[in-house]
Amino acid sequence: MVGAVAPPIPAPSPPLQMVYVLTVYNKRDKQHCIQIHVHREIPDGISVPTELQSVDDYPDNQFTFSVKHLAPISLTCLMPPSYLSHHPPYFFLSVQWLDTVKVSTLCHMLESIWAHQSAQEVVFEWVQGFTLSHLGFDGGIIIRMSDSTMAPVDARVVGEILSVEDVVQRLINYDEEQCLETFIRGLHVCAICFIRENTTDTVYIGH
Q1: Domains (range + CATH), the chain
Q2: pLDDT, block means (10 residues), the chain with 207 residues
Q3: 19 phi and psi, to 5 degrees?
Q4: What are the distances in angstroms from CA 82 to CA 78, 119, 122?
Q5: Which Pfam families does the UniProt record give (predicted)?
Q6: Taking the model in full, what pTM does it have?
Q7: What is the distance between the alpha carbons of residues 94 and 92, in angstroms, rounded to a whole number?
Q8: Could you give the 3-state DSSP secondary structure of residue 43?
Q9: Can you list the positions of beta strands (E) in 27-80?
């Protein structure tokens, strides 16, 4: 499975980035471990063309859906005592909607960022590098079987090797969960009487 670049489409509203950080400090070793989860919200949605494995009964294996929320990119960093002065953070990277080869490429991108600004704070720059434009997905994401299934995988990549069908289902499930959560947190105006109601008096229908 691979997330590949889709043909350009009209630009949607800019994606919103939400970053959640958990920091753990080991007093004995004097080391920090940071877990960062980068969530993407695309108000106008992003197109996801999909190529499923074809079978004889269903030769047309392509379909397209859209999501407004992408499952988070998870970055775990361990700060060695020599961080900033000599070494970058040790890190592990997980992206549910990318295959391991593409995530390996992201690992190399993080290394490149450190190489260009060594001895400087780098984690913020790493997180900034997770924008859709830097990932090459401005026009949408294509989910399909990878052409590089035998390519080496970086040891810092964390995650399962999933089928296209599993990735699609995870994307849809996560998007539905986040849309429902957003609905529950909000106030809504009735289209008939124009009265603003909270979610205890309204029903979510997924539109």
Answers
A1: 2-161 (3.10.110)
A2: 38 58 69 86 86 60 87 91 87 89 89 86 88 70 70 85 85 92 71 58 54
A3: -120, 125
A4: 11, 10, 14
A5: RWD (PF05773)
A6: 0.73
A7: 7
A8: strand
A9: 31-51, 62-79
